[in-house]
Design a protein that fits this description.
Pfam families: DUF4276. The chain has 59 residues and is mainly alpha-helical. The chain has one domain. Helix content is 59%, strand content 0%. It has three helices and no strands. α2 crosses α3. The longest helix has 16 residues. The chain is elongated, with a radius of gyration of 13 Å.
């Protein structure tokens, strides 16, 4: 299933089509390749996670 670490999330889904839903497939993808790898390869995702962590730390 995995082709290359430098590919977009969509490339990890067999038979990608216009109906790809990151919310639906995201959990399975993270389970397969690991959250650390996603965070290291996806800067916007990393920023989103850091924003959430910052909100939690403020409470």
């Amino acid at each position: 299933m995995l082709k290359n670490d430098n590919k977009a999330v969509e490339d990890y889904v067999d038979d990608y089509n216009e109906c790809f839903d990151k919310v639906f497939y995201g959990y399975s993808i993270i389970e397969e390749i690991g959250l650390d790898k996603v965070i290291n390869k996806a800067p916007r995702f990393r920023q989103w996670i850091e924003r959430i962590e910052g909100l939690v730390e403020q409470k």
